[in-house]
Amino acid sequence: MLEDAGLGDRVDVVSSGTGDWHVGDPADPRTVEVLEKHGFDGSAHRASQFDDSKFDDYDLILAADFGHERRLNRLARTDEQRDKIRMARSFDDEALSAGDLEIPDPYLGEWQDFETVVEQVLAANRGIIDHIRSELDLNS
Fold it and tell me: pTM higher than 0.85 for the full model?
């Protein structure tokens, strides 16, 4: 989506979890299948754990749910680092209006749960891209 928005050469994305229990594992096959259905290739993804020594290297840190947000806030050492943490769905106006900011973990769910999560992430990503574009324009 960043490439399509013309931002691919200006933005780096790192994906990581707040725990270490899946480090090195590929994405759930259901996730890969749903991503492929939507035109994305998740086959090369491997899980990693968030490295709190990298806080200062990032401009924006997105949390999927409130548990992740709390964990990231505990890892942050300064108010400036905490200010970088946002709920991913807070960039989706509909989710924000509904007060539904968490992206649920579909792991124990059904196929439709994976589809719902991808749709939620795509909606959030549109707002995230608008935010990034705005931030880059302000800093140009």
Answer: yes
